[in-house]
Write a structure and sequence with these properties.
Rossmann fold, two-stranded antiparallel sheet, binds zinc ion
């Protein structure tokens, strides 16, 4: 790390001993130094049930146990369970073989159960934005190793929604995921031109939702050049019908993105049989702090 220091009438480049002042290492050191103080003022509590927990931002053991992961082994493209193969084989399912999807794989950390829904509500509407780190860790834990340069791009919010909520939850997740996985992030790669209502509000069918989204999501013209040929991880909090991600996918593909992977915290997936709950697969005490760090 070097910096400019005033010498006589000019400036001289020198090596600085501190690293980047606002760098992640310094931030982490500061966070660590203040953690005991923070715990004293705000004792760590589970964001779902309020139970006391060991670390800030972690879930209690019983809430961990209620989060459900999509079953393994699963198809590396659609994440639906594949029967008769051992974990890690990466066997593409019959329907993806017959009709390959437009994306390059879906990774969801959880199935959209009651516990996942409560976490998303706390994150999005309860303004517990500190949960972004934990949710991103859960996504990262299931996201396979990615070769080469990848950029995280969030599903966009319409500016009215952004103004109401004050933040785009998917952009927070994308930034955290990018930080944890050493990717770059482009929070304004996509724009939502029209404020389409959510599936649950309108009880639209998927086909109706796809129609309502046509032309609503587009690539930011200022970012079009950087998206050409890029490998993108499209980040969403919850994937419901897939209509929104599909609209984002089309926009990114038409801008020339070479690969688009979808990564979300939770997924509404009727077909997927639930696998181990997070708390069951590993010891909850071990999983909790690791995922919340
Ligand atoms: Zn709890
Ligand atoms: Zn598949």
């Amino acid at each position: 790390m070097s910096g400019l220091v005033p010498v006589g009438s000019g400036w001289r480049k020198v090596d600085l001993p501190f690293g980047r002042i606002a760098g992640s290492r310094t931030n982490a050191m500061l966070q660590q130094a203040f953690a005991p103080l923070l715990d004293l003022v705000y004792p760590p509590r589970c964001p779902l049930c309020g139970e006391g927990v060991g670390v800030q931002g972690g879930l209690c053991a019983s809430c961990w146990g209620e989060l459900v992961q999509p079953a393994e082994p699963s198809c590396p493209l659609c994440q639906l369970p594949v029967e008769g193969h051992h974990e890690g084989e990466g066997i593409v399912c019959a329907s993806c073989c017959a009709k390959p999807p437009e994306h390059d794989g879906i990774t969801s950390a959880t199935l959209y159960t009651d516990a996942a829904r409560k976490l998303v509500i706390a994150f999005k509407h309860g303004r517990k934005i500190a949960l972004a780190r934990m949710l991103a860790r859960l996504i990262s834990a299931r996201l396979p190793a990615l070769e080469g340069e990848w950029t995280a791009v969030p599903v966009p919010l319409h500016r009215w929604r952004l103004w109401q909520r004050g933040f785009n939850q998917s952009a927070l997740l994308a930034s955290e995921l990018a930080r944890q996985r050493g990717m770059s992030v482009m929070v304004d790669g996509l724009l939502r031109l029209r404020n389409t209502r959510s599936l649950s509000q309108d009880r639209l069918s998927r086909a109706e939702r796809v129609r309502s989204l046509a032309g609503a999501i587009t690539v930011n013209p200022a970012r079009a050049r950087s998206l050409r040929g890029a490998q993108i991880v499209l980040v969403d909090d919850v994937m419901t019908s897939g209509a929104t991600t599909s609209a984002c996918l089309q926009a990114l593909r038409s801008a020339g993105a070479s690969k688009v992977r979808i990564a979300c915290f939770s997924r509404v997936l009727e077909e997927a049989r639930p696998s181990a709950a997070y708390g069951q697969k590993q010891d909850a005490r071990e999983q909790g702090p690791r995922a919340s760090a």
